[in-house]
Each structure stands twice: as structure tokens, then as C-alpha cells.
Specification:
By secondary structure, the chain is of the alpha+beta class. The protein has 2 domains: 2-120, Immunoglobulin-like (Sandwich); 182-282, no CATH class. 38% of the residues lie in helices and 21% in strands. The chain is built from 7 helices and 11 strands. The strands form 3 sheets. It has a 5-stranded antiparallel sheet, with no helix packed on it. Strand 9 (93-97) and strand 10 (103-108) form a beta hairpin.
């Protein structure tokens, strides 16, 4: 059988088919990666296949990185050794196929030797170092836990004490038996309005009384509308044109007093007050 294998390899070599094996280094430390590459060179007319090779035990680990058939004619492995000494690469053979894709024979890659060293050999202290530091010992009394428990109890007690001393609010329920009508409220506020106060304050309150009456009676948001917006919304106000014109005139006068510092006399203030009373009575 040995002679037959030698005969086949001699034929392949004579036809220019050669297998090579290379290591990127022949010395490494425990756990370091060595790259091992196997390449098939020569006649491209041959069909071949790179079989899988994965070894993993307590001494060595071989991991296949690349297997591309008929592309670059090369396969690579990673070798990691977990023991020191001299080693040889594992046995690996490339399958040579016939025209039908069946294995005709194998071509074995040459073995390569390499050495694995210990990192301790490069240090001055060759004694093994401890794998784990000293384990802390718990004290007899868990002082830290006791302090935390006392702090938590104190905080809870303080929260409860403050919560008990809080001031309770009492709310009075609104009496819905008596509801003031919009017109009654407007007349009451007009009676309380005095022309002896500042002109700006007088017309501000007088304008607010009339706007509030329109809003509560007709549900028109006049308190939030400007005089110009009220004028543009004539269709919303259920009143005669003459009354609406008097309303716009009064609102413009109030704006001039509030913002343009127009100064009407007290008699004019009383007349405007009576005019608002008349408009409200007729609505």
C-alpha cells in the first residue's frame, strides 16, 4: 500500500501537482494563535477537495478558517496549544477527484514542527502566581447593614410625623339654590360703580360689566374679543342696528380712555353709565 501511494504521488509530481505546508511562526506561547496554511500548486486540470479538519481537546485546538475549492487552491487553519513542548501539525490530506467527482486518492500535506513556550520562562520570577486574591471575611456584626436600617427607620418616622402635622383644607360647597341672573348682576355692579374713581378704572369696569352681561346672556365670548372683532361679528349679536352702533361707540370710547388717555368729564362718565343701563334694560 505504501508503494502504491508513493507511485501515485510520483505520477502527480511528474504532472506538476505539488502540495505545500507553511506556518507563520515555529515558536509561540501557550494560548497564542499559529496560522497554518496548506496550498495545492500545479496543473489546474485536476479536481480536488479540501476536507474539513476541526480538532479540540485538552492539548491542542485546530480551527479551519477558509475552505475555497478550485478558487485559490489554499486552506488555512488556526492552531492553539495549551501545553509546552515541541509539536507537529496534524495529518491532513487533500482529496484528488476523478471526472465523476469521486475520491481517486489522497495527497498528504507535509508535517511542520513548532515549539510552544511558557510565558513564565521570560520572567525573572519563575514561581507560579496566585490565581485569585484573598477572599474578604465578613465581620461578626453587620455594622453597615445596621446603620442603613436605622437610617431608613428614621426617614420613615420623619415622613409619617410630617404627614400627620399637615394642614387639612376644608372646601365650602357652593350654594346652587341662588343663581344671580345676568341682568341683575349687571345692575348690581353698575350701582356699585362710582364716577369719583380714576377715569381709566371707571371705563375699564364699565366695559367689563357690559361684556360680561353679553357673554353670560348670549354665550358670546366678548370678554376675550377686541372691539374690532366684535364689530366684525355683527351677525352673532341679537340686537337692533342702533343698539349695536351705540355699543361699538361706547367700546371705542372705553379703548380711547384706557389706551389713548382720553379724559372725559364726570358728567360724561355718568351719561355713559346711564347709557349702558338703558342698553341692558332694552336687551
Amino acid at each position: 500500500m505504501i508503494y502504491l501511494l508513493f507511485f501515485f504521488q510520483s505520477i502527480l509530481f511528474s504532472k506538476g501537482l505539488l502540495i505545500s505546508s507553511e506556518l507563520d511562526t515555529n515558536k509561540a506561547y501557550i494560548g497564542e494563535i499559529i496560522r497554518w496554511s496548506i496550498k495545492l500548486e500545479g496543473n489546474d486540470s485536476f479536481n480536488y477537495n479540501f476536507p474539513k479538519l476541526n480538532i479540540d481537546n485538552d492539548t491542542i485546538k485546530v480551527k479551519q478558517l477558509l475552505s475555497l475549492n478550485n478558487t485559490n487552491n489554499q486552506i488555512e487553519f488556526e492552531i492553539i496549544s495549551w501545553d509546552t513542548g515541541r509539536f507537529t501539525t496534524p495529518s491532513y490530506s487533500i482529496e484528488i477527484l476523478d471526472d465523476n467527482g469521486r475520491v481517486e486518492f489522497l495527497m498528504t500535506a507535509p508535517s511542520k514542527e513548532y515549539s510552544i513556550l511558557s510565558i513564565l520562562s521570560t520572567l525573572q520570577d519563575k514561581n507560579f502566581r496566585p490565581l485569585k486574591g484573598p477572599v474578604p471575611v465578613s465581620g461578626l456584626w453587620p455594622i453597615k447593614n445596621l446603620i442603613l436600617v436605622i437610617v431608613i427607620i428614621t426617614i420613615v418616622y420623619a415622613i409619617i410625623t410630617v404627614w400627620k402635622k399637615r394642614e387639612k383644607k376644608f372646601y365650602n360647597k357652593i350654594n346652587y339654590k341662588y343663581i344671580e341672573l345676568p341682568k341683575d348682576r349687571a345692575f348690581r355692579r353698575l350701582e356699585e360703580l362710582n364716577s369719583s374713581q380714576f377715569t381709566k378704572d371707571f371705563y375699564t369696569k364699565l366695559s367689563h360689566i357690559f361684556r360680561e352681561y353679553i357673554e353670560t346672556k348670549y354665550y358670546i365670548r366678548t370678554l376675550e374679543m377686541t372691539t374690532e372683532e366684535i364689530k366684525e361679528s355683527r351677525s352673532l349679536f341679537p340686537m337692533e342696528d342702533l343698539q349695536f352702533e351705540e355699543l361699538i361707540v361706547f367700546l371705542n370710547l372705553s379703548d380711547h380712555v384706557k389706551y389713548a388717555l382720553q379724559m372725559p368729564t364726570k358728567s360724561e362718565m355718568e351719561l355713559d353709565k346711564e347709557k349702558i343701563k338703558t342698553i341692558i334694560s332694552n336687551l
